[in-house]
Amino acid sequence: MSVGQQSRIFSSSSSQGGRTQRRSVGRSFQNHTPSVYGGAGGFGTRISQFSSSSCYSGSLGSDEVRVTDGGKVRMQNLNNRLASYLEKVNNPPEIIILQVDSAKLAAEDIRMKYELELSVQKMVEADLFRLRGIRDSLTLINSSLETSAENLKEEQLEQVRAQGIGDVNVEVDSTKSADLTQILEEMRVQYDAVMKNNKMEVETLQHQIFSCSTEVKTYHTEISELKRTYQTLEINRQALQAEGLQRNLVEVNGQYAFRLSQHQETISTMETKLQEMKASLEQLQIKYTLLLELKPRLEMEIEEYRRLLEGDKFQKKKKTIVEEIVNGKVISSTVDTKVQTIQ
């Protein structure tokens, strides 16, 4: 902001004989040139006030040129609307929020189902491992029983052979052979029953293993389908969110571009008016300076005419009054009087 200062003191003389008076008037004025500066993007533009103060014996007053606050109010309203639009952009619409929440709930449900199926799968695998151990133990028992049966048969045959060789008597003991045959038959029946039970248990275990394997495969298939569904929902959610945000961003950019162009036009109009006001003030200042320079000459000519009209002998009285006035108030005042007799 540029500041120009100028002060002038004019004097006038007076004489008692010829009643000639001269009055000295001290004038000083300060000129403050308004300045304009603007913020980034055309926002925050501020125009300083122009004030003019003068100091002289008679007050010239203080003229102030003020720029109306309408532009500031409009800019403040637009800034508030910009803040609300940015808040809307940062907070997605309620529909998108509901869709996102529903997708999150569906994903959470799928995750819980997945964890449940995973725990069931682990339990089934543990049961399968336990059943495999039981099957292996039953297989070992079955093989050991078969081996024992074969060994018993061989031992019985050896005993029969040994008894046949040792007995020289031709007599046949039918009761003993009947008893041995009966014992062998009973043992065979017992072993057959044990074998049937073992076989039935093995078949039952195999059936359970097959059913468990089928259930595990079904669970794996369901888990894969749930994963695909979750991925599809997540992709759809992200696409909807991105589309909504992009649409809102385009709308907000368009609106603010239009508002910004209006602000730029308003600023250009205000700057043009300010330049016109500066030019008019400069012209007024030039005219005022010319008038101030012309006044002493006119006073001197008037005094000269009076002297010629009233006579050669007169007494000149010079009184100088200097007053400093700012905004209509007298800050300081000095009076200097000089009397001089002229032949």
TrEMBL record:
Low complexity composition-biased segments:
1-19
Segments crossing the lipid bilayer: none
Q: Where is the IF rod domain?
A: 1-316
| Gene3D superfamilies, alphabetized | 1.20.5.170, Single helix bin, Vasodilator-stimulated phosphoprotein
Database matches in InterPro entries: IF_rod_dom, Keratin_I
User: Source organism's superkingdom?
Assistant: Eukaryota
| Keyword set, alphabetical order | Coiled coil, Intermediate filament
Region Disordered: which residues? 1-33
Supply one GO CC term from the record.
intermediate filament
Q: GO: which molecular function terms?
A: structural molecule activity
Indicate the segments annotated as coiled coil, or none if absent: 216-294
Which is an annotated Pfam family here? Filament
Q: What is this protein called?
A: Keratin 99
What is the species of this protein? Nothobranchius furzeri
